Amino acid sequence: MNPKDVLSENDQRTLLSLARSSVQVGLETKQPPPPIEVLSPLLREKRGVFVTLHQEGALRGCIGFPHPVLPLAEACQEAAYAAAFEDPRFPKVAPGELESIEFEVSALTPPVPIKPENVKIGVHGLIIRQKGRSGLLLPQVAMEYRWDVEEFLRQTCRKAGLPPDAWRGDAELTAFEAQVFNEEDLRRRNR
């Protein structure tokens, strides 16, 4: 990741706070929060972002924007709201759950074409597209499951609903990097 794209600890805190408050506002109003004005230039830049919710160590929701379509702060707010209330894999977050949910933010670099042999585990997230289908896996997923490059490519194909070896054919493969941070990591750093 280019050093100019690395978020400071203060920006990380701001994004995590925005994510949590977006869900809180959603619980209270049943509506996404209005965008806020932020001072940090990096948070005003258009960037891709994913917000992941964990509850008791398990995935509770994950939604995001792989492409830089909104300013980072606004995209983070929208992704957090969607992860809590619109991820079709999970029921909507209920008011009593918020305290037990940990927020994780993945701030992305723009996706660029990549050859399978250049994929690096722990560095790249992947997007595969073919025949109107697409799938995305964040870089931390391959690390969490201890996949090698070939398994990471296969799993990204599966996420897209494609045959596991579609990456070997005419599929479009792009990669991005992510700065990943969560509330627990920031708490540990400040002890």
Largest sheet: 4 strands, antiparallel
Q: How far apart are the first and last residues' alpha carbons, in Å?
A: 27 Å
For the residues shown, what is the average pLDDT? 94
The number of distinct β-strands equals 8
Total helical segments:
6
CATH architecture classification name of the largest domain: 2-Layer Sandwich
Task: Describe the structure using short key phrases.
four-stranded antiparallel beta sheet, 34% helix, 191 residues, alpha+beta, 6 helices, Glycoprotein, Type 4 Pilin, 8 strands, 24% strand, Dna Ligase, domain 1
Plain-language structure description:
By secondary structure, the protein is an alpha+beta fold. It folds into 2 domains: 3-109, 2-Layer Sandwich (Glycoprotein, Type 4 Pilin); 112-176, Hypothetical protein ph0010, domain 2 (Dna Ligase, domain 1). Helices cover 34% and strands 24% of the residues. It has helices at residues 9-29, 41-44, 72-85, 139-145, 149-159, 183-189, and strands at 49-55, 58-65, 101-108, 112-113, 125-130, 133-137, 172-176, 178-182. The chain is globular, with a radius of gyration of 17 Å. The mean pLDDT is 94.
Indicate the topology.
Elements: H1 9-29, H2 41-44, E1 49-55, E2 58-65, H3 72-85, E3 101-108, E4 112-113, E5 125-130, E6 133-137, H4 139-145, H5 149-159, E7 172-176, E8 178-182, H6 183-189
Antiparallel strand pairs: 1-2, 1-3, 3-8, 4-7, 5-6, 5-7
Helix pairs in contact: 1-3
Q: Concise description?
A:
This protein is an alpha+beta fold and 191 residues long. It folds into 2 domains: 3-109, Hypothetical protein ph0010, domain 1 (Glycoprotein, Type 4 Pilin, 2-Layer Sandwich); 112-176, Hypothetical protein ph0010, domain 2 (Dna Ligase, domain 1, 2-Layer Sandwich), CATH 3.30.1490. It is 34% helix and 24% strand.
